[in-house]
């Protein structure tokens, strides 16, 4: 029970990190980006690539399995992931945004997701990779509860990021413009703000968060080209549960989805675990489409 | 019968089966603008429904009712319809994105059920020995395949003409009107959400029909038949062929499936063995590029939207 | 309708344009088809299996070819996907005119190829690696017409042997984590039945789905009930993930490992130091001249020992097919089918793997004398359903390397099964 | 007469190039002048101000402000062209607080200057001060209109464009809003206003343009048009012809 709670919170915090980026792009850019999952994968693999190229292994810090190189690699990965997001937006999404049916953009993100995943497969191969071959042994906190230091780090970092992002959105002009853009793009322009800049920054922030989520996720699991894709449904469920565009909501949504997945295994066979986010999603759509906390914009048309 | 012809018959059976799926998707996307990200799920429901209803009775299985093939196919279609209703009703009044996400979810969930509910679906082992309709009547596999090609082609033709008729009916014009200008259509007293739901459900039913035909031909069904990649392939067929046009859907199904099989063939021939492991990724990238480039540079696909439909509207 | 006709013509034109080479040069080349997962979830083991088939074909050509022609190995990737596999097999049979299809690896791909391509096309199919019991069932129902063979034993004997080993190790409460595939399900069930009959307890049976990034939930639920040991039935990549999480969360290191895990990649990913107390099983015989012959040839060609699932059985699948074709004298599926037992059973002269062995076999066949092939997995005998029972080896990990701990020959396996069935 | 502050010359515009809504419309506004645009439903009144604001593409004709060409300007450059625009609906961000709405309006200014002008706005509109940390969705229609105008004035524009500021307001509120606009004009700001309420529009403004079916029909000093029977004919006639 206790273990399921701890696992749920860990998985939930990673889902939350990914869902923040998704909910921002979904709320502000107004489309469900199926390729967001691949930004996560891309970030995770870019960090792996940086580690492989630099090859410096400066030894792990304290009780964690990783050291300075991975932290630096994560920063590089965040930049590279933001670059990918901007390139994709420039080449694919932006030209299609003017299309009469806005679902064309959503659909194109489906195609982009496939392409990115396969490019990763081509570059890195399909077999599982790890940041470190060393196995970290979980620490027993109390009977029935073991946690890994890495997991505590993940949870802590998620908290820090959420708080930082909250202040960014509440206190800065750019954050204010983002929230405004989610509600009414024309009115933002009327206020003298170049929405293209805001869109670019939304991509950069969303992608950088995706990269961080990818590295944290990759640290707790194995890296494979599908890791992001398998998170996609939990991410959407978390974002919609929390209210699209609502950062705080995405975090709570992520935790709920993570806990539900974790506890579900106590009642149903583990094989059905991946269906749990879908059930949550359906329930939200039937009962409260605007999410628990309401979004920047509601689900209704 | 020469090898090429035999392969061609086989190829066309598969391609035309997919063309029915593509026409179903065309009704959803091409004519109604609904993004179904879980095509493979509805295809799978039809296939499993048919397999469970027509398969042989086995001790360890719930199913195996040994019903006649047409009954099985219709049963599979009904199940696909119900699944479409579940996600359709949930998202009926919401933005279309929610339908996309829900369909994506239902496809994953259906695969999980196929994989884990082994007393119904045979689990990972799949369901074997599903009778192929009228198989005993034909002496050689070649003759049987020709017969089956005839069957699939006939069904595809019926679907094609049926859809054409529906699209030229008042209902079809309403669909088009809703896609062009939802508010205007709504102001005419039509409920756009309900019409969209109808198109979505009907399209999913056709996918279920194709699933039944697929099982009848292969005689076996397993979760591996319904990997997410199939959804991409079906989409590529529609986009490349030209969405909003049923002839385009059929041409796209045959063309893209030919491209897919031939690229596989070419890769196995041309790539040295040590690079073969990358071959599958290259094939998928070709499909992905095909989708994105067509959207960007030739949004109407090979064969654009049929003019006949819009003529009635305007 | 006109459009459809047009597109078929279009398709035909493309086919004919794309594949002229096959039709023309095949004058005296006999294609030996193989459908394997070179990409997809089990790509880690698929490529080496493909090499094993290639090795057998190369050696046969070195010995002078088959049925008067050169054998040409045509490998197609099924990408772990049935519709791709079926299509690949169909091109092998119809366009390449292969009288034999080797493969596939996963039963989910092998089965539709069997039912929709090879059996209707009267082509022999021999799998190196599909161990599902459903093939036996299909053969018993008459669904294979005898065209189906496999060179690896079904999962039942493996489960029995593992249960005996668990008992010998004095494990009382075992958790089983198994891959949710035909292979994993049937092996897990057979092990559970056998182990419980031997007086042990299986504390939990946990299935996992392939290619997940994490198996923490599965590992946690397997840990319930305080097992003193774990039987992991998995493929190398996913198996490593699951086992890493198991060990990380303080799971016991008393490990039993299934045959598919006998791969260097698995040992490397998990870390050899955690595997010192692990024992695994594999369906190969590591002793005897026929096995030596294969191992040597492999090492000579690839510079490392043939460690990995499916290598020995794939080699034998190809060798059996080629010898039967030589005996039949023509590339005809039905004739090959009828000759497979001729070259593996009876009192003929023993043939070992390698060019010399194949040369000898060709001479004997030419002279009309009987032969009996003993392969990379030792002696092979197919029963009425195309199944084999085989010897097993028990492996462990020492100094970071895979080592062989002991071997179970066929007699011992048969005795153990008989003991259980009493 | 000096050169007009805003000169719209013969513009054709519409959401889709093949379906123009405006067919060669011309309008001019001078410094410190209040101009209203009236016309029956579907006359293209809102489209006209949106086209000036760069929200609807102009396919021919020009728009210039104080002599410089701003045809099809990027909307976010309105402020640099000394124009402020208050749309008819959705003219405030309901999910943001009053304070945030104003901050957004000041985002082209330096932080210090922005703060100074926001403080001034609070002085001018005490009702906003009262709700400054509330979400704008709590405001009534009139209060929203006030907020929108206050926001628009932050950049100290020379021309303020309003799209039906009286829509949905009680008569009392309407006269209050109009009073305020009048006093704005007296401080030197020019106003171009789309108005549905013909009587009120003619009463308050200096000059009026009557549009119908995307074309200029009549224009002139409001006081003259007030007695012109043609105005009523346009309304009725256009309605009659439209079926």
Describe this structure in words.
Chain A has 301 residues and is mostly helical. Chain A has a single domain, classed as ABC transporter involved in vitamin B12 uptake, BtuC. Chain A has helices spanning 2-28, 36-54, 68-97, 103-124, 149-171, 173-183, 185-190, 195-220, 227-242, 247-267, 276-287, and strands spanning 139-142, 145-147. Chain A is globular, with a radius of gyration of 19 Å. Chain B has one domain. In chain B, helix 1 runs parallel beside helix 6, helix 2 runs parallel beside helix 4 and helix 10 runs parallel beside helix 12. The radius of gyration of chain B is 20 Å and the shape is globular. The model of chain B is unreliable at 306-314 (pLDDT under 50). By secondary structure, chain C is an alpha/beta fold. Chain C has 2 domains: 26-152 and 288-379, 3-Layer(aba) Sandwich (Rossmann fold), CATH 3.40.50; 155-276 and 391-420, Rossmann fold (3-Layer(aba) Sandwich). Chain C contains 16 helices and 15 strands. Chain C has a 7-stranded mixed beta sheet with strand order 7-6-8-9-10-14-15, sandwiched between helices. Chain D is α/β, with parallel strands linked by helices. Chain D has a single domain (4-88, 156-241), classed as 3-Layer(aba) Sandwich (Rossmann fold). Chain D has helices at residues 45-52, 98-105, 111-124, 126-130, 141-153, 171-186, 198-204, 222-226, 229-242, and strands at 6-13, 22-29, 34-38, 58-65, 68-69, 83-86, 159-163, 190-194, 207-212, 215-221. In chain D, the strands form 2 sheets. Chain D has a 6-stranded mixed beta sheet, with helices on both faces. Chain D has a 4-stranded antiparallel beta sheet with strand order 2-1-4-5. In chain D, helix 2 runs parallel beside helix 5 (141-153). Chain D is globular and about 45 Å long. The chains are: A mainly alpha (301), B mainly alpha (314), C alpha/beta (422), D alpha/beta (243). At the A-B interface, helix 3, helix 4, helix 9 and helix 11 of A face helix 3, helix 4, helix 10 and helix 12 of B.
Radius of gyration from the alpha-carbon trace of chain B, in angstroms: 20 Å
Query: Average pLDDT of chain B, to the nearest integer?
Result: 85
Count of separate DSSP helical elements of chain A: 11
Rg of chain A, Å, rounded: 19 Å
State which percent range the strand residues of chain B make up: under 5%
Low-confidence stretches of chain A: none
Form type of chain B: globular
- The helix/strand class of chain B is mainly alpha
The CATH architecture of chain A would be Orthogonal Bundle
Identify the strand order in the major beta sheet of chain A. 1-2
Membrane topology (chain B): Multi-pass membrane protein
InterPro entries (chain B): ABC_transp_permease, LivM-like
Protein name (chain B): Branched-chain amino acid ABC transporter permease
Main location (chain B): membrane
